[in-house]
Description:
single chain, 179 residues, alpha+beta, 4-stranded antiparallel β-sheet, 10 strands, 26% strand, elongated
Amino acid sequence: xxxxxxxxxxxxxxxxxxxxxxxxxxxxxxxxxxxxxxxxxxxxxxxxxxxxxxxxxxxxxxxxxxxxxxxxxxxxxxxxxxxxxxxxxxxxxxxxxxxxxxxxxxxxxxxxxxxxxxxxxxxxxxxxxxxxxxxxxxxxxxxxxxxxxxxxxxxxxxxxxxxxxxxxxxxxxxxxxxx
Length: 179
């Protein structure tokens, strides 16, 4: 005859509690694993500030002759300068200067010579140069004494390169797209 097994009192509910603890521990481990992996996956996405500012448009009528406007593009300052006819004539007459030697023509778009668009970051250590200062009427970097002319070309000081001209196009006669 088969013997019947009698379970001590409380063994049935104890088994279901144990199962619950195993399931809860497994779910917690899966959640912790997902939380650990998420930063690795998320860092592969493009940065929000770069994606949002891949290109910007600017209305040039907001800049008065002899003045500049500072825009923010991809986290960097961009100088949009509306140069006076005297400034344009002076920098054009100087020919190819700076490092590398560049003419003013190479740094502006044909038909829009009064407007200069450069990234406003000193090429020495990344400081933001001061507008309409220095020995050459362009910019002066107060950090280490670099002097740029009104075309953004380095003329004196430790900066190794001219101010960078970003990629830009004219959408219309009064609108420019940077980037």
